[in-house]
């Protein structure tokens, strides 16, 4: 017994020592991305391509990236549609007095569009034809932060946050990812009136792939394709093409807008016409594209019962229910020997129904990306419901 106690003591000391050394080896890289007019550049891809390490800036252009001292001599790359790619050695960036990255506008697209004239539909056909070649189509693991808000009458009433691992093969793998494993999770107090009407019936990552224009096997000939603009990405001209479905007009909220490279036919970004469904892709070291950021915001109206009218103190006959999902890809693993995503069968599971044990130590030490404007606004609304701060809600609800 005495020997066991000594072993346990030394094991704890070793564990603490290793943890301290690990913390000392970490580099917290954070800054802001602006254009030459001092406007923020949202959703820019930030990372080290050769190491598959990266993140995206938020709506304010802020970004956060955790590296190690082994990355000091690596090159940090920042790229965004419409701007020249910016490169700086990590060590040099950390030495800057002000951690500001200024991006130059890239004006290469217009001349290229004038030289290379094709119908917009031809660009779309070539983009889909080259999809397997242009995207990461081998097995890989995405490390994702998934944030979900349920909103009633434009006020956030419920929040769930999951850190998860996803096994995927990219857009050519079909409308579903292969596996989803929730590693950690937490949720707020639930202030909804309509608790069963607001959360999607499938896990948000599956819904994300289901409505993805690159994955849902759209029939190109069912759409009327029109050029609506041009821009550039990483030195390549981009044509912006909008498709309007001529067959299923009732689903026009999913009519896609594609940002297609003029030389490579790579699709760097997609969104719907209303821009409330967005997908942003970034390159790996081989120039293959993979998902970097996604958000979707959907809403519908539900009839109010007399009881709910009294609760809400309103004479309105309907209530607007909304949901907003945000997916931030924090890392990627392509080494098949290191890919480890458990089979959990979450595809048809509501996010709120996933059993996750709350680990306060994980969230206290997890390096969260800078909050987006919607995140900050929604958290403020959640705290205002009964004047309870979000951290207290996490501790009370999840335990």
Key words describing this protein structure:
single chain, 399 residues, alpha+beta, ten-stranded antiparallel beta sheet, disordered N terminus
Please provide a written account of the structure.
It is a single chain. The chain has helices at 2-24, 90-94, 109-115, 120-129, 131-134, 204-210, 306-312, 360-365, 373-384, 390-398, and strands at 26-35, 45-48, 53-56, 62-68, 75-79, 86-89, 100-103, 140-152, 155-168, 179-187, 223-233, 236-245, 256-261, 267-272, 277-283, 289-303, 318-333. The chain contains ten helices and 17 strands. The radius of gyration is 23 Å and the shape is globular. A ten-stranded antiparallel sheet has the order 10-9-8-17-16-15-14-13-12-11, sandwiched between helices. It has a four-stranded antiparallel sheet with strand order 3-2-5-6. It has 399 residues and is α+β, with helices and mostly antiparallel strands.
Oligomer: single chain
The tally of helices reads 10
Secondary-structure class = alpha+beta
Form type: globular
Low-confidence runs of at least 5 consecutive residues: 1-22
Strand content: 35-45%
Order of helices and strands: HEEEEEEHEHHHEEEHEEEEEEHEHHH
The whole-number mean of residue pLDDT values reads: 85
Distance between the termini: 34 Å
Using DSSP, what is the number of strands? 17
Instruction: Report the helical percentage.
Output: 10-25%
Rg, rounded, reads: 23 Å
Outline the biggest β-sheet: 10 strands, antiparallel
How are strands sequenced across the largest beta sheet?
10-9-8-17-16-15-14-13-12-11
């Amino acid at each position: 017994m005495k020997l066991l106690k000594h072993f346990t003591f030394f094991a704890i000391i070793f564990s603490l020592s290793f943890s301290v050394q690990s913390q000392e080896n970490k580099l917290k890289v954070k800054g802001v991305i602006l254009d030459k007019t001092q406007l923020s550049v949202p959703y820019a891809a930030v990372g080290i391509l050769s190491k598959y390490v990266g993140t995206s800036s938020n709506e304010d252009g802020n970004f956060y990236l955790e590296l190690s001292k082994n990355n000091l001599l690596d090159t940090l790359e920042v790229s965004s549609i419409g701007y020249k790619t910016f490169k700086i050695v990590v060590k040099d960036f950390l030495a800057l007095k002000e951690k500001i990255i200024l991006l130059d506008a890239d004006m290469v697209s217009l001349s290229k569009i004038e030289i290379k004239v094709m119908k917009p539909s031809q660009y779309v056909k070539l983009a889909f034809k080259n999809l397997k070649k242009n995207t990461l189509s081998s097995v890989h693991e995405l490390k994702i932060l998934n944030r979900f808000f349920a909103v009633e009458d434009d006020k956030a009433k419920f929040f769930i946050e999951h850190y998860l691992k996803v096994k995927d093969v990219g857009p050519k793998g079909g409308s579903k990812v292969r596996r989803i494993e929730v590693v950690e999770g937490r949720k707020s107090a639930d202030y909804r009136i309509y608790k069963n009407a607001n959360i999607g019936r499938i896990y948000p990552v599956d819904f994300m792939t289901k409505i993805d224009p690159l994955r849902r096997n759209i029939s190109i000939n069912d759409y009327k394709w029109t050029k609506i603009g041009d821009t550039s990405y990483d030195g390549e001209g981009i044509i912006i093409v909008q498709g309007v479905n001529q067959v299923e007009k009732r689903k026009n909220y999913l009519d896609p807008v594609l940002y297609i490279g003029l030389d490579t036919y790579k699709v760097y970004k997609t969104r719907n016409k209303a821009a409330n469904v967005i997908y942003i892709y970034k390159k790996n070291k081989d120039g293959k594209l993979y998902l970097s950021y996604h958000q979707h915001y959907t809403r519908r109206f539900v009839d109010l019962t007399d009881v709910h009218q009294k609760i809400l103190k309103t004479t309105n006959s309907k209530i607007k229910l909304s949901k907003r999902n945000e997916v931030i890809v924090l890392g990627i693993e392509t080494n098949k020997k290191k890919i480890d995503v458990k089979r959990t069968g979450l595809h048809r599971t509501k996010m709120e129904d996933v059993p996750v044990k709350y680990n306060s130590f994980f969230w206290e030490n997890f390096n969260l990306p800078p909050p987006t404007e919607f995140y900050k606004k929604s958290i403020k609304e959640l705290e205002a419901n009964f004047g309870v701060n979000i951290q207290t809600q996490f501790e009370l609800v999840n335990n």
